[in-house]
Amino acid sequence: MESLQPVQEQKANRFINTLSIAIPVAVAVLLGIRQKVDLGDWTSYLPHINGIINSVTSILLLAGFYFIRQKNIEAHKRTMLAAFTLGSLFLVSYVLYHLTNESTPFGGEGWVRPVYYFLLISHIVLSIVVVWFVLRAVYFALSGQILKHKQTVKYAYPIWLYVSITGVIVYLMIKPYYLH
């Protein structure tokens, strides 16, 4: 099933394109809300959970790459769907944290400050870009369009891996400045 009906393909593309725009816009709007929602102190632990989610996602991405190199399609599929699920869970947790808590300022000084901001900015920019690639890669894989899937993951995989790993690094760099 290397190609779908044109109407189905158009609907899928429209849905992916809409989500790829809506997700970053929604996150930006939620980050801009000055009045925070009080859901309790438990939300202050979400950055630590997000650090774990990003760490596990990074490991799953590496495992998925290993499995596909070994031609273990089923393990690759399960691993990558788990990474996608964790990425979705991360997004919900990230939004929930920033909806309920002020952003934590980075307190590092000296050479580490520009390193932190370089990693943070590149992480943010590429996390916006990667949404479209990942959604397309997952769609192509699940719809049996393996050639298109392979073409998409040439870009999706390294960007997603970079975003996951830099998410962990940025978290570890700012962790000392969290209140909890």
Overall pLDDT, averaged?
Answer: 91
Order of helices and strands: HHHHH
Largest sheet: none
Low-pLDDT parts are: none
Helical content, roughly?
over 70%
**Separate helix tally:** 5
**Content-based structural category:** mainly alpha
Task: Domain count, please report it.
Answer: 1
Protein name: DUF420 domain-containing protein
Keywords: Membrane, Transmembrane, Transmembrane helix
Transmembrane segments: 12-33, 45-68, 80-100, 115-135, 155-174
Organism: Spirosoma terrae
Key traits:
about 180 residues, mainly alpha, 5 helices, globular, DUF420 domain-containing protein
Q: How would you characterize this protein structure?
A:
This protein is an all-alpha fold. The protein has one domain (39-177). The chain is built from five helices and no strands. It has helices at residues 6-32, 46-69, 73-100, 112-142, 146-174. It is globular and about 50 Å long. The termini are far apart.
Short characterization:
77% of the residues lie in helices and 0% in strands.
